[in-house]
Amino acid sequence: MEYETPLFFRVMKYAADADRDVIDVVSGNPDWEPPAALRNGLREYADLEPDAFQYAPSVGLTELREEIATRRGVDVEQVIITNGTGEANYLAMARALERDRGDEILLTDPVYPYYPGKTTMLGGRQTFVATDADGQLDPAAVREAASEETAAIVVNSPNNPTGAIYPAETIRKLVAIAEEHDALLVSDEVYDHFDLEGRFASALEVESAHRIVTNGFSKSMAITGVRVGYAIFPHDLVENARSRHMLVNVSTTRPGQYAVLNALRETEPAYYERNRDLLRERVETFTDALDAVGAEYTTPQGAFYVMARFDGFPGTLENTYRLIDEAGVAGMPGEVFGESRREWLRFALVTPRIEEAAERLATYFG
Ligand SMILES: Cc1ncc(COP(=O)(O)O)c(C=O)c1O
């Protein structure tokens, strides 16, 4: 079996090799400061005794697990510290498939492409359930698609790429569907701090032995390179996931865990609010420019992304390259997120050059 290199790397390389100035609105790397306590934690770490440079407990530093368990209202035994949300999703999906309750993973369309990538890698089969024009997922459509073959339903709210936030009622129904089919709801909540309208509902609000919540600090603390995330498993499913995590990773970065713990303890809510304010401003600047050229677009309720559709300019890889060469703006082709957004392009609002990117698009499509 062959795994495809995520297309995102190809677009980044094409943009980097272009012989003109290109604004990168491809990747989900925050451009703002991590919390000061994160930097301080890393600095402090460098001067610790040699034993701090040895293996951390495989399941994660105890104090970090305790801090997360307290904040999320779960038992510390349920928490595994992972190599980012990416690994947490992998552990959750692998756990769902190894239960022998079917080999189908229900995903949304559009979808964060790593989910189908992981499904294939794990030998599962994917079935897509279309979301509506605003990226909302109708639980009735999920119920219709679900069967005894369904091992997991994997969702992401706030959503990459649509920016949709699912209401508490949707989450509650998705958990109920997972329970009805003896499947697992995997809820990836990595953008929870980027709830721009105060609507976010965590799957942890629904008590169930059929839901796994994944999360991480890559986005909330602007540290995609540090690699610290976590998964919260139901009690009876956590043991195997711990073993898989241990066999694949031994353990997760110890300096990273230490610094994240320091940042969790010391960072004021104002830090997160500032970043949301910045994003709200960028969304406005960017969508104003899209309005000016009559483009259709999604206004995100959360996360970092705006999807846009320009008449006569479908979101193919070829057009993405054209936009790099001719407008100097690098976005992501909508086709990588699934069938339903083939006409669309995705732009990540994580560069200080949003105003310039917006102007370039307005000039190009104007
Ligand atoms: C929906 C979603 N899940 C997971 C990840 C990966 O997060 P992490 O860096 O914590 O592995 C991303 C990164 O873009 C994402 O968009």
Automatic annotation (TrEMBL):
Transferase as UniProt keyword: yes
Listed InterPro entries: Aminotransferase_I/II_large (IPR004839), AspAT/PAT-like (IPR050596), PyrdxlP-dep_Trfase (IPR015424), PyrdxlP-dep_Trfase_major (IPR015421)
Keyword match Transferase: yes
A GO BP annotation: amino acid metabolic process
Keyword annotations: Aminotransferase, Pyridoxal phosphate, Transferase
EC number of the protein: 2.6.1.1
Pfam families xref list: Aminotran_1_2 (PF00155)
Catalytic EC class: transferase
SUPFAM superfamilies: PLP-dependent transferases (SSF53383)
Domain Aminotransferase class I/classII large residue range list: 21-361
GO molecular-function terms, A-Z: L-aspartate:2-oxoglutarate aminotransferase activity; pyridoxal phosphate binding
Cofactor: pyridoxal 5'-phosphate
Family of the protein in this entry: Belongs to the class-I pyridoxal-phosphate-dependent aminotransferase family.
Subunit composition and interactions: Homodimer.
Protein name, entry field: Aspartate aminotransferase
Organism annotation: Natrarchaeobaculum sulfurireducens
